[in-house]
Amino acid sequence: MSALNELAKEISLCRDCELCRQRTHVVPGEGREEAKLLFIGEAPGWHEDQQGRPFVGPAGHFLDQLLASIGLKREEVYIANVIKCRPPGNRDPSPLEMKACRKWLDRQMELIKPKVVVTLGRYSLAQFFPGESISKVRGTSRKKQGTIYFAMYHPAAALHQASLRQVIEEDIRKVPSLLAQAEEIKEAEPAPQQLSMF
Length: 198
Ligand code: URA
Description:
Layout: H1 3-12, E1 30-31, E2 37-41, H2 46-51, H3 58-69, E3 78-81, H4 95-112, E4 116-120, H5 122-128, H6 134-137, E5 141-144, E6 147-152, H7 155-160, H8 163-172, H9 175-183, E7 194-196
Parallel strand pairs: 2-3, 2-4, 4-6
Antiparallel strand pairs: 1-3, 5-6, 5-7
Bound molecules: uracil.
Uracil binds next to helix 3.
């Protein structure tokens, strides 16, 4: 079994916060182990909780369309969430839940070593750039320790607010050039200096 699958198994046994009491399935994430592109959403919803897979409901269908628009299938990228268990009633994740779950995302990232991380929505953005406003930084990228971070609205935002669909569709089109740019980043880039494009 691969290290990432072993980790998913470990995540599925987690009981480190209250969300473990009401979940049907843990949703560790899925995709290609050597993915260059990692999408990070917020938390599983009802459909994801039922199936144990990320982004399989209406927001997931839109994410699939967005990926297709840049010539990618979900099997070619990795898709994960900040929180691995569904908050009841799809409420926002609490700071305690995010803190308890953070270690899993960190370990997933250590194994996948993505070149480009796309944060979907404000909770995902906040994991890497706390205090940033999604409406200000969406559609922009930032390089941090050899990885490019690109901020987007959450796909579900387009389902609630039709005007955001076009914004999201435009933003995803920037991803291929970020991937090309990431290929040029040397492995041993000097640490935490930030080249801000936000
Ligand atoms: N929304 C998310 O943030 N993640 C999912 O997996 C599904 C919907």
